Amino acid sequence: MTSAGTSENAAESRNASPQLAPADGGVTDVDPHKAFGSKNAPIIMEVFSDFQCPACKTLFLTTNRQLMDNYVTTGKVYLIHRDFPLPMHAHSRVAARYARAAAEIGKVEPAEKALFENQEKWEQSGDIDGTVAAVLSSADMTKVRALVKGGTLEPLIDKDVQLGQMYRVNQTPTTVFHSKGQTYPYSSAMSYEILHQFLDQLLSQK
Amino acid sequence: MIEASPWNLRRVVLWIGRLLLGGIFIYAGYSKIFLPNKNLWPFFILKFSISLNLGNFRDQVEAFKMLPPWGVQFVAHTLPFTEVILGFLVLIGWRLRIWASLLTFIMIGFFVVVLRAYLLHMNINCGCFATPEPIGLRKILEDAALSGLAVLMTIFAFVEARQPHPWAAAEKARDSLPAR
């Protein structure tokens, strides 16, 4: 997932604990480290996902890349990634912490990719630290570990969960689309073929 | 259609089968098509909702690892609508022998698939309704009971056609007489 310049610039201008900024379209509590694209995009997509969820893995690995290339970087969609660790997944909250920590230092893309690609391994072993360490430098990993242990990331994850509960999210992935004052929550993974037709229709609405 | 006449075991089973199985099939098909994403308007939203729901069902069918890709697509896009139509036809009792036979065939087929998954310890969720439910012994027993009811309903539908109740037979005989 490319940062489109947003995560990196935000990390430079902030301290260890990021501040949450309001976004357009009535969407609030946006962590700039986990948001991609232009805030002025006509469509806002909030994706609630769980790193231990197989359907979320499918969504990330099959749809996300094309979405980023064709809609996010072109300014059509503002993509916000929300953490929604499900209670039945033992390691998903820890995975969310590591992903957020990596996002803080501008390494969200390799960390999330590693977590989703190796989902079956770490959900058995619980070795999330090793999974993320395999794709980051030791210097970056030191920062990530410090952030995970620092405890500043937990309130951010809780905020995402509360927001999901407000939208009545009960499964992952759930994507909430915001366009022209309307909100459309959708559950389950969606193929890019279906998603791009929907986005094009939303964009063509007057 | 079944004429009004005194109850016997055969007719009770037929009515229970029609109501229960017809209703279950209608709900199963409806939930696959419209749940959990049920934003209905405008039309392109509805189309997107249905596509997502059927895509979700396609993943559940694929998880059983029994069909080639084209088979998975075919089942995912036809079975939910077939269930709704079949359930409705069985419920109203029109041409019951035909539709009850088809319903029983689907019911038994599904029971075999689920039983196979259970015996192979496949860690998948049953795609019966919109909300995934794990396959356990309880699910197997439920499906076995429903399959048994479907078989009985079909057999009794054929028996009823060949040996209608005397009251119903008398009405049919009267109806077949030329008008005076």
Comma- or semicolon-separated keywords:
heterodimer, A: 206 residues, alpha+beta, Glutaredoxin, five-stranded mixed beta sheet, globular, disordered N terminus, B: mainly alpha, two-stranded antiparallel ribbon
Could you explain how this protein is built, in words?
The complex is a heterodimer of chains A (206) and B (180). By secondary structure, chain A is of the alpha+beta class. Helices cover 49% and strands 14% of the residues of chain A. Chain A has helices at residues 6-12, 54-72, 92-104, 108-117, 119-125, 128-133, 138-150, 154-166, 192-204, and strands at 35-36, 43-49, 77-83, 174-179, 182-187. In chain A, strand 4 and strand 5 (182-187) form a beta hairpin. In chain A, 46% of the residues are buried. Chain B has helices at 9-34, 43-63, 69-92, 96-119, 137-162, 166-176; strands at residues 125-126, 133-134. The longest helix of chain B is centred in the N-terminal third of the chain and has 26 residues, at 9-34. Chain B is globular, with a radius of gyration of 19 Å. The two termini of chain B are 25 Å apart. Chain A binds chain B through residues 55, 58, 171, 184, 186-191, 194, 197-198, 201, and chain B through 36-37, 39, 44-45, 48-49, 51-53, 55-56, 59.
